[in-house]
Structure formats: C-alpha cells, structure tokens
Design goal:
6-stranded antiparallel beta sheet; single chain; elongated; 3 domains; alpha+beta
C-alpha cells in the first residue's frame, strides 16, 4: 500500500482542470454556433455538461483509489477508507442531477421528467442507505479514532495475552486470567524500579505485570517487564532462578539489531525482577493474521524475511527466542519490523511455581518444544513458518478443540497444503512453507538466513 497521500494530487489537478476547461471551451465562437444532434443540446451546454460529468467521474475514481490506498488499520483511517465510496457516490448523484437541470434540460425532456426523477430518487435512496449502513458497521473504528491515545496505540511492552488466551483450553484460560487478577490486586504499582520511575501499568506479559516507566536521567520512556520472586519459597531455587534470570537478560541485552527490541537494563527491587526495554508504538502482526485484514502476499514475504534476518542474527549470538508468534512481532508507524521478547519465555519458565501459570499459546510451538527437548534456532524457524502460514491464509496450520489435541497435531500430523487454502499463491511459497514446517530437524531450514533468502527470491519472482 502507498505510504503517502501523493496519489491524491493528480486526481485533484484533473478535476480542477476539467472544471476550468468547461467554461473556457464553451465560450469559443466555434462552439457557440454548434449543436449536438439527437440530444437537442447547444454546443456550450453540451461542453458544460460533459465537463461536469467528467469531473464527477474523476471524483468517483479518486474515491475508489482512496478505498484501495488508505490502510485498513482500524481507527480513523479505516472509517474514511470504508466511507469513501458510498459517500462519494451520493455526492456524485446529487451534483449530476444539478448539472442536468442547469444545462441538460433538453436531455431530461427526451428521457422523460418522471422517468428521470424516478432514477434520481432511486440512486439517492440507494446511496443514502449505503452511507448509513457503512457508518453503522464502522462505528467502532470511529470511536477508536476519537478515543484517548493510550487506548488506540499498543506499545510493544503490552503483550496481547488476552487474545492469545482465547486459543487455549477454557480451563487454562480461566486459570491464567484469575491469577493475573490476583497479582494485580495484591501488588500495587511500585513507585520506582531501580532508577526507573514507574508511571502506570500497561498490561500483563509472560513473566508478570508490565509497566510504563521513565528513566529520569535521560528522560527516556521504557517498557518494564516484571517477574515475582517472593513466591519462590526454596532459597536454593530462588538463587537459581535469579541466576538464570539475569544470565538470560544479559545474553538478550547484548543483541543489537534494528529489527529487535532493545533491552536496556535488568535488576531486582521490591521482590521483583525487572527488565527495562525499548518502548515501541505500533501494531502487532496479530492484527493482520485474520481475514479481512490480511496483508498483500509481497508484504507478508518481506515482513517474515525481515523477522528471519533478526532471528538469524540472534541465533548467531547464541540466543533463541522460543516464543515467536504474531503478537511478538510489531510493525511500527513507519512500518519497521520489531521482534519482541527474546528470551522472555525462558526467563518466565525459570520462575514457574505450583500455580501452573500458562506462559503463552502453544499454537506456534515446535515439535521439539512440545517433546521437552533442547531447542535451537531451528525451533524458531518452525514457529516463524507457522506465522507465515497464518499471515497468508488467516488461520494457523494446526488447530484442535483442546490443548492436548493441538499439541498432538503439531507433533504428529502434517500441516495442510497452503495452496488448498490460497490457490493464487505460487508453488515456491508452498515449498518454503513445507520446508519451514518440517517436523524432523534435518529436513528443516538449518538457519533462518536460508529461510529469509528463499523468501526474498520468491518475492523477486513475484515482482518479475
């Protein structure tokens, strides 16, 4: 999609040029003495009517292009996008009627005044109903456009755990939500965490509560993810958890890549382990993982290739993500890909207690994760293949009625052929998905860099 509004310029210029050309051409001597046969219009009136109708046609073409160009991201842009065509159609009908009654009365007489009035009334009522229905169906987008900014922007620190929990078993989801509510009630927002001033609670992540913080020294806003440490009774286990927590935070903090959210700091205070990281404003890929919000194929391939590049960099540094899913990949307002929460799944698992807290949706887990085996970068590749499948089709490759059946399906069943769901996809996409979702490690991509390279080759073949 277009990232600017420059496409409006040519249409606007064409409309103005036609409207100005109409009076100029109709005043020419040659036109004054001419007439149009069969329609009983004088030359000047025919020119003026043709100019008005052409200008209205260009206006309607502008509205159609606006519907194609304006991104459907929710909020005001979606409201304008969906209302552009019906509203412009109503305007075109009204002004076309006016043009006919000013300079095209002979045509109305030929058609028949009653027939013309009936056609105008039908068009007016139809387009009015279209506008009304579109307005009603897009009220949520309109409300979102005028909602406070903290409701419409979702920072990278705010995991979409509520959406993810809907994909789990009902008992599991209920237990997770109840535990989060208990944590929120028994733990008021701390004033400071290390050197960071805590401003407000943002939400809940895999480790615990997530806060918006500010580093007063350099006036930088950060996302602070916390992990409860006071619920671990055994001192030996507590020391082990802390060691793993800070070791994992240190390893992920060394990552420096333009497509990976940066970790600034980690520490412990008020019986909370915390990680301060880059605060990102944007939308996660979760938004584009269901119809009718699917991205164009070329944009999906480029986005997933960029994620694969980031993963390959992390894997070469010895860091495995372990929780790749659409909710953990953000697209900023400038359409920059940002991968979040490297190592968070491992940090969270280190603090798991008898509460059996769910650490995330299993939909994107690799077979070796489900089996409890040691994982490497190829596990992230399987998860990213699942994300690719979902972004292209609007559904994950593995689904089931309950958690046990889902895990069994991922571990033992083959994924459906993607071309059966999207016949318009080229065979190369099918080959890439099939290789990324191989259950046996030797048949899967060895490195995420290979995955990214084949995605870009497919992208080039589509553009050729």
């Amino acid at each position: 999609m277009s990232k600017s509004w420059t496409w409006i310029g040519p249409y606007t210029f064409a409309i103005l040029a036609v409207l100005l050309a109409g009076p100029v051409l109709s005043s020419l001597t040659l036109v004054q003495s001419a007439s149009v046969p069969f329609v009983l219009l004088s030359g000047p009136h025919a020119i003026r009517l043709a100019a008005d109708l052409l200008a209205l046609s260009i206006l309607w073409a502008l509205a159609f292009n606006a519907h194609e160009e304006i991104p459907n991201k929710g909020g005001g842009s979606s409201f304008i996008r969906n209302l552009a065509l019906p509203l412009t159609t109503l305007v075109v009908i009204i002004f076309a009627n006016k043009a006919f009654r000013i300079v095209g009365m002979p045509l109305i007489e030929q058609i028949g005044p009653a027939r013309f009035a009936f056609g105008y009334a039908t068009g007016l009522i139809g387009s009015g109903l279209w506008v009304t229905a579109t307005w009603i169906l897009n009220q949520n987008s309109l409300r979102e456009a005028f909602a406070p900014s903290h409701q419409t922007t979702r920072p990278a620190s705010q995991l979409e755990s509520e959406e993810d929990s809907q994909e789990l078993e009902p008992e599991t989801s209920y237990q997770t939500k109840n535990m989060a509510a208990t944590i929120a009630m028994t733990n008021p927002t701390p004033g400071m965490l290390g050197r960071y001033k805590v401003l407000k609670e943002l939400g809940r992540g895999a480790m615990g509560l997530v806060y918006l913080g500010k580093d007063p020294t350099i006036q930088r806003f950060v996302a602070i993810k916390t992990m409860r440490l006071d619920q671990i009774d055994n001192d030996d286990k507590l020391q082990d958890v802390k060691a793993r927590f800070f070791r994992e935070a240190e390893s992920t903090g060394r990552l420096s890549h333009p497509n990976i959210v940066t970790i600034y700091d980690a520490g412990e205070e008020h019986d909370l382990g915390y990680i301060a990281m880059e605060l990102i404003e944007g939308t996660s890929l979760k938004h584009w993982s269901r119809k009718p919000n699917l991205m164009p194929v070329s944009e999906v391939l480029l986005t997933v290739a960029t994620v694969a590049d980031a993963l390959d960099y992390a894997h070469q540094q010895g860091v495995v993500h372990r929780d790749i899913k659409p909710a953990n990949v953000m697209l900023t307002k400038d359409r920059i890909v940002k991968v979040m929460d490297f190592g968070i799944a491992k940090m969270a698992s280190s603090s798991q207690t008898q509460t059996n807290m769910v650490l995330g949706t299993p939909t994107y887990m690799s077979p070796e994760q489900i089996a409890g085996k040691k994982v490497d970068g190829r596990s992230d590749i399987f998860s990213l293949g699942t994300v690719l499948f979902e972004l292209l089709t609007g559904q994950p490759p593995f689904t089931a009625d309950n958690l046990s059946a889902l895990l069994f399906s991922i571990a033992h069943h083959s994924h459906p052929a993607i071309q059966t769901l999207r016949p318009d996809l080229p065979p190369m996409v099918q080959e890439i998905v099939d290789r990324a979702l191989q259950k046996e490690l030797p048949y899967r991509y060895r490195r995420a860099e290979e995955f990214a390279r084949e995605l870009r080759a497919c992208l080039q073949s589509l553009a050729a």
